[in-house]
């Protein structure tokens, strides 16, 4: 296994002077009144709260109501060289919302309108603060849905910014696939539109996908046009037990290879199942499980379910009990989504640290098994859940932060997790993004020319380095 | 309908001096011997031959054998400020391979090896000169296929560079969706790898999709990792007649909305059917037709076909005769792919000019009908074919180039085609790309900030403007 080179310290722009920050806050307050908040509690809620990265709150939080407000904020900050950190729901997991140099957090909470539903075109135009659940509530009586589901009820702007995916991505793709167009406020205050509403285009560089996954480092997303799907005529799903993680992974590989259009296929290892049983009062068998869901016509979901059941049997799994009753499915998927909280409850008083990698699916079983062995050898507690149809899995490390030795072992485990994924031609993050937490792995993953290209693009679109500095790549 | 603003003349870098070009050719000849060709016939084959844009041949053509060769060529040209034009099979339709400033054409014909098939991961690593048919021949006995099918047997490097799509895109996506990773030689001679082989990643800016569709203006693709699919268990398809183009389009809209996972759904207007009958010796009814194909299990293609037949009936179409016999389908699709040649044969001695636009599918019927009316009012001959499941359609204008008035009317028609598509929130090109032919429409489509962002990215990655200058956006 290749050792990662020690990453060079990331040079960052200098923090702004205190008078510059004060002056920006005064100007914004004049413009936006009590929509500018400097109270400590609010600032702390807008630092990183979802990981063990140190929280670095902004100097102030401002709540724009529209794109023009965002432009004013950006122009004010740009004039003073004060950093800007965009904020959706703060559920990102790698410190994307931290403000290492201070500056102004732009919370899009109030930009939460669904602007247009084009039912015939299966698309919707939304403001960035609309959350995925809010959107699906809005769409339900039109028979439409937005498929991406990262667990948290994240804001769609943040989901685009972090190239989110989640449980349905194996069937419906990630945010890069479902985003048709974006409106973005650039570092110079201009509003850029990335694309028209046509389903495909070959008209120039793919600006849409340049901004998807850029984590606010190239601009602030103020409007999204997203693809929708019709609510499937039928949904079937269930839980399938396996004798080993390896058997479960191999069943997944076969399912994908044969081309069953599975909508979700999620692995929970035995420890995660134990946690889910305790937390969600279920009595699932405490062995590796696949949670599986199929979308289609009544006939097709029955056919898919039967076919999957046969595959599971080939690998010693099963029985695969599937149902089309919504209440059964809802209970299961709620339990799956509560996996993070359930894991936390396994070991009270610990910090729950989520990290993800993604590998080519042929290496998935090997990668998960080696990781489980590594967890055991490290004397750590870390249930595994995974969007295994994409080769993507998560550790939910439970760390006693008062035990220095355990913290050291946990950090070393996460380093080896990434090294293992890279050695298998995988990526250091399938869906959580880079933020601050994974910057040090990017060069090992992609090489110096790719990083230099990213830095050149960043410098081209944000020459002063004010947009979410200290994330993804070092600013110059 | 919004009139397009007259586009500003695109500033271009100055052409290189003749001695600079001579010196580059001498250096390359020393390195590559008779793989450097300056014969007029070869140069002319490497200018634009597929449209009515004037052909602008390069000063020399060189045939690299590997990535290191491409690096040497780029470094040699960069040192002398001589332009580089990448070349696949020369089937692009908007002048992408023209050399308006002269320079060196890099023909990847000999880089045609399939480097690795990862059957378990459903991906393949290829050199850029591999064509799609060559790849599918190679894959067939492993039960795998590469779905994208633009008609021409294009090289995969060129297909990625132009963000190609074609008949299967409605089901399998475009090159942006099926490209996992690229190796690219940059303007500074460095080799950049855009991504690992994991099926998804959130590790930094999406360099893969930055290069897909960049038409050689940011670098030369020297290796591609592409997603594959298992050859479907069953394929069904057939032809369905409709009383009007509008009825056909409305049936398409319903099919997509209901979520039938149609693999191909292609419109031929009555004139195109007439051309196909004559050219391919078929006896299809000379009315608007949809060519439709379904992929899946035996049961699912039967279900899909029956469901589509019902939809067609609702709109006065049908009967929809579908078959699963490969020979019937092959004959039909060959005829569909020969549509370009068939159209040309409608009016001997004319130039066949293909242009495409793409609109939100709800506007498709309106856009196609208005375009047909415009063709008639302009006294022109232009059959229409379309990848209508994506809202994308093509005119095959047949122009007597000796008739000045007709040429003027034809050019005006194509301008109005783009204006019409833009007025419907569509794009000036769904799949042919920008090249030289559609540069003038980009600002009207995307706005000045988007063009400025593209220009900034171009300048960041190719500061001297040597990579395929005069395409997509003006170099600085």
UniProtKB/TrEMBL annotation, chains A, B:
Q: Which Pfam families match?
A: FAD-oxidase_C (PF02913), FAD_binding_4 (PF01565)
Instruction: Tell me a GO biological process for this protein.
Output: lactate catabolic process
Q: Give all residue intervals belonging to the FAD-binding PCMH-type domain.
A: 54-231
Keyword list (alphabetical) reads: FAD, Flavoprotein, Oxidoreductase, Transit peptide
Q: What is its EC number?
A: 1.1.2.4
Question: Family per UniProt?
Answer: Belongs to the FAD-binding oxidoreductase/transferase type 4 family.
**Protein name stated in the entry:** D-lactate dehydrogenase (cytochrome)
Organism, by scientific name, is: Rhodoplanes roseus
């Amino acid at each position: 296994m290749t050792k990662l080179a020690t990453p060079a310290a990331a040079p960052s722009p200098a923090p702004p002077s205190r008078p510059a920050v004060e002056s920006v806050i005064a100007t914004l307050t004049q413009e936006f009144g009590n929509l500018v908040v400097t109270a400590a509690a609010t600032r702390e809620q807008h630092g990183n709260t979802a990981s063990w990265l140190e929280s670095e709150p902004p100097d102030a939080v401002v709540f724009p109501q529209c794109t023009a407000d965002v432009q004013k904020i950006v122009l004010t900050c740009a004039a003073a060289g004060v950093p800007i950190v965009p904020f959706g729901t703060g559920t990102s997991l790698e410190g994307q919302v931290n403000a290492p140099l201070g500056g102004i957090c732009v919370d899009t909470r109030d930009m939460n309108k669904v602007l247009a539903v084009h039912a015939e075109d299966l698309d919707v135009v939304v403001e960035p603060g609309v959350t995925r659940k809010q959107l699906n509530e809005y769409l339900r009586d039109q028979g439409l849905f937005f498929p991406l589901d990262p667990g948290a009820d994240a804001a769609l702007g943040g989901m685009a910014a972090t190239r989110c995916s989640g449980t349905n991505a194996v069937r419906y793709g990630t945010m890069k696939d479902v985003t048709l167009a974006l409106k973005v406020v650039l570092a110079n205050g201009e509003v850029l539109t990335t694309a028209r509403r046509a389903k495909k285009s070959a008209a120039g560089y793919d600006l849409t996908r340049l901004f998807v996954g850029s984590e606010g480092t190239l601009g602030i997303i103020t409007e999204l046009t997203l693809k929708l799907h019709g609510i499937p005529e039928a949904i079937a799903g269930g839980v399938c037990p396996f004798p080993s993680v390896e058997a479960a992974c191999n069943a997944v590989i076969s399912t994908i290879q044969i081309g069953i259009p599975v909508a979700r296929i999620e692995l929970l290892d035995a420890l995660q199942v134990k946690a889910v049983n305790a937390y969600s009062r279920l009595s699932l068998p405490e062995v590796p499980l696949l949670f599986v869901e199929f979308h289609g016509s009544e006939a097709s979901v029955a056919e898919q379910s039967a076919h999957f059941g046969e595959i599971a049997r080939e690998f010693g799994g099963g029985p695969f009990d599937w149902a089309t009753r919504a209440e059964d499915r809802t209970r299961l998927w709620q339990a799956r989504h509560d996996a993070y909280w359930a894991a936390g409850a396994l070991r009270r008083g610990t910090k729950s640290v989520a990290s993800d990698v993604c590998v080519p699916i042929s290496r998935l079983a090997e990668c998960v098994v080696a990781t489980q062995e590594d967890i055991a050898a490290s004397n750590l507690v870390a249930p595994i859940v995974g969007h295994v149809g994409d080769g993507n899995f998560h550790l939910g490390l439970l760390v006693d932060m008062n035990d220095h030795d355990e913290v050291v072992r946990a950090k070393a485990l996460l380093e080896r997790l990434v090294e293992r994924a890279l050695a298998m031609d995988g990526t250091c993050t399938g869906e959580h993004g880079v933020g601050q937490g994974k910057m040090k792995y990017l060069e090992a993953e992609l090489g110096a020319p790719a990083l230099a290209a990213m830095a050149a693009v960043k410098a081209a679109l944000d020459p002063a380095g004010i947009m979410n500095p200290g994330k993804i790549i070092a600013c110059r």
